[in-house]
């Protein structure tokens, strides 16, 4: 089984280092020189860590065979995965992105979309829910709004505040109507 542990950000400096968004609770164990990652898209990998260091709160990684800023730029947005035999089933503190993606998003018994991504942020995580008409809605992943995650039955239950699903509606149409008499 593959587990996503990071997402590559922008290049840092001229020697091929990149910033990474860390998606693991154990970065000291996961990002050591010699560690090889499976990469998505597959054309960018596999990648082997040659250096890892912290610059304030940002992890910077160097990879074998990535020596220039231009080469590092080609990795932007790539996802880093590790191969793992098993996950700790006793961990009730959270969910992995691969467990959430594809779950139905329900408000009561009504299906309002499917979870398409988990965006981990410094303050709180956001679930991206894609509605049946293709709109992407960001949902704060907090217990007050997402009181139930049921992996076994394939759904999350939402109790969204008024307007959460409408906040992005008709934004594309607004500029066309402005200034017309």
**Major sheet summary line:** 6 strands, antiparallel, barrel
Instruction: Going across the biggest sheet, name each strand in turn.
Output: 1-2-5-4-3-6
Share in helix: under 10%
Order of helices and strands: EEHEEEHEHEEEEEEH
Query: Uncertain runs with pLDDT below 50, 5 residues or more?
Result: 172-181
The shape is elongated
What Rg, in angstroms, do the CA atoms define? 19 Å
Give the termini distance in whole angstroms: 59 Å
Strand content: 35-45%
- Summing up helix and strand content along with how strands pair, one would put the structural category as mainly beta
Mean pLDDT value: 81
Give the strand tally.
Answer: 12
Q: How many helices does DSSP assign?
A: 4
Plain-language structure description:
With 181 residues, the chain is mostly beta strands. Helix content is 9%, strand content 40%. The chain has helices at 27-30, 69-73, 97-100, 174-177; strands at 2-12, 17-22, 36-40, 47-55, 58-63, 79-83, 104-107, 110-119, 126-130, 136-140, 148-150, 155-157. It has a six-stranded antiparallel β-barrel with strand order 1-2-5-4-3-6. It starts with a strand and ends with a helix.
In short:
The chain has helices at residues 27-30, 69-73, 97-100, 174-177, and strands at 2-12, 17-22, 36-40, 47-55, 58-63, 79-83, 104-107, 110-119, 126-130, 136-140, 148-150, 155-157.
What is the element layout, followed by pairings?
Elements: E1 2-12, E2 17-22, H1 27-30, E3 36-40, E4 47-55, E5 58-63, H2 69-73, E6 79-83, H3 97-100, E7 104-107, E8 110-119, E9 126-130, E10 136-140, E11 148-150, E12 155-157, H4 174-177
Parallel strand pairs: 7-12
Antiparallel strand pairs: 1-2, 1-6, 2-5, 3-4, 3-6, 4-5, 7-8, 8-9, 9-10, 11-12
């Amino acid at each position: 089984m593959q587990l996503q542990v990071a997402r590559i950000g922008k290049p840092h400096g001229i020697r091929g280092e990149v910033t990474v968004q860390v998606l693991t609770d154990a970065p000291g164990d996961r990002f050591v020189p010699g560690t090889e990652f499976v990469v998505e898209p597959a054309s960018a990998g596999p990648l082997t860590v040659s250096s890892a260091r912290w610059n304030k709160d940002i992890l910077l990684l160097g990879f074998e065979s990535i020596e220039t800023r231009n080469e590092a730029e080609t990795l932007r947005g790539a996802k880093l995965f590790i191969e793992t035999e098993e996950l700790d089933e006793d961990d009730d503190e959270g969910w992995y992105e691969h467990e959430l993606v594809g779950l139905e998003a329900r408000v009561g018994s009504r299906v309002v979309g499917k979870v398409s991504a988990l965006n981990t942020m410094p303050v709180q995580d956001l679930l991206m829910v894609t509605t049946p008409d293709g709109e992407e809605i960001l949902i704060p992943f907090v217990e007050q709004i997402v009181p139930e995650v049921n992996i076994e039955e394939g759904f999350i239950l939402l109790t969204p505040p008024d307007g959460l699903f409408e906040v992005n509606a008709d934004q594309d149409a607004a500029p066309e109507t402005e200034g017309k008499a």
